[in-house]
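Researcher: Before we compare anything, I want clean individual predictions. No alignment, no superposition, just each chain on its own. First chain goes here; please echo the sequence and then give the structure tokens.
Model: Echoing the first chain and its structure:
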Amino acid sequence: MLDSFFGSLSEAVSFPEDQLRCLSALLLGYPLAFAFRLLPANNPNLKHIASVVTSFFLIVVVVNDLVGLMHLLGSSIAVWRIMGVVEGKWGPRLVFIGVMLHMSVSHLIRQFNDYRGYKLDHTGPQMILTMKLTSWAFNVYDGRRNPKELSRYQQDHAITTFPSLLHYLSYVFFFPAVLVGPSFEYMDYIRFIELSQFRDPKTGKIHWPAGRVMASMKSFFFSLIALASLATIGPKLDVLWTLDPAWKALPWVLRFGYVQLAAFAARFKYYAVWKMAEGACVMAGFGYNGQDPKTGESLWDATSNINVWAYETGESIKTLADNWNMGTNKWLKHSVYFRVVSPGSKPGPLETFATFGVSAFWHGFYPGYYLMFASSATALTAGKLLRSHLRPRFASAASGRTPTWYNMLGMLLTQSTINYLSISFLLLTFTDSIEVWKNLYFAVHIGIVAVTVLVPVAFPVKRKSKKQQQETEKVKELVHDVAEEVAAVAVGAAKEVLESAIPAAGKVKTL
């Protein structure tokens, strides 16, 4: 549908038709989200129907991917039926295995038919769907467990009442996020639809926090800036030029510098689509995150998938991971990382590598993905060693802060590391990735190994002196004495209240 329109427009603006369709669907999300916000607050079923119908319209009519919709819809209904029938821990396990296999088949078909191609198809939305379906299955399972066995996060998102198919599909196909995300939890979505977080418990009236439209427009205009940057800077910093003999002939410093710039420019496309989808979610009223404790202003970043400033100025690999593709990170954390940890044990390197492995598997089967995520796991371990062994030597004893030069050096090393490692993610193939790293003398990889091996030996963790240990023990004893004194006063007060309230009971014995 609309083939002639998008075909003519694609030729006129010299922009790929598939990307033009996707961008048009994201832009249409804004007026549709504004209208969605105006639907009656006391009719949640109308909102659920509108969400599903709107997504079907965008996927079939605008994006022109009826086959893709069949994949998404079929997988969603299958998961709903499985969790309705299978109880216990095998329900979410079957769902996780099933949807990951389905997505993997889609990845392989795309990889064989369009190797190293960037034509958009249903695999992108299916990756978002995989996160939603697996987290939803675990939440249903948590709703059937003893609440005492759950973490605070699991308790907040446990689904205690199995949802109807309409409510479930509304969550799966929430139209501002159906194409590029973000992923979010089912209970957060239901609270938004029912407006429970905005409803006055006494009067039942809805009080919308201020700043929704402004926050939406900020994301929208930022996405436009990212698109403009991608269109102007992107072609001049093509990562494929690293395979050209002209690049290889450059001095090492210039080769390394180009890799830094090319990796930075490649992030514009993610910034553009993620911020555009985030703005549409906020326009619909989804994304309220309380108030800023310092300014008191309303925060509308609950559906944010990227914190651009925090990522571009991050001083550690962990900071970058926490602020990049945050919806996926949350899914990996709560549906993978904490699900593979044995009860009563602490997460270790095995859980970290398992999480990175699932992340690479989720992205697809290009060898470059696995090279990057394996390297990133080792870089993360090296960063933890630097923090535990080196940082305390430069941190202020009074404030615990490190000097500015230390922070700036950390930011420079972190950005250089991630830009170097992400080349394999962009080049996709094993041969090309190794070739580029070889031309850079595997500098960052050697640095990671050196840090891992040498830092614990050269900078052992300082143990507290005997005097510091004695001071710590004195503080503990003081805190213990104060706690006992407060408890004694509280018990005495309670005794007096009880004795005065129930004089016939006589004296109240206390332990």
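Researcher: Okay. Second chain, same rules.
Model: Second chain and its structure:
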Amino acid sequence: MFECNVVIYKFVQELHFFVTGGDNENELILATLLQGFFDAIALLLRKNVDKREALEHLDLILRQFNALM
């Protein structure tokens, strides 16, 4: 909990992924959302999830993020 928000995070090399939700959100759902997003990014980047690859393919990452919304 951070200021009445649930924060789920994942650190991979130099990348930090965060999902936040209200204090009434289910932590398991948020964690599943984060894991699904990370798995999609890993597939897009061919399992090479690092800062350089993420910056080179930022358009694909943002499209995936938009699809989650």
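Researcher: What stands out in the second chain?
Model: The mean pLDDT is 89. Additionally, Residues 6-67 form one domain.
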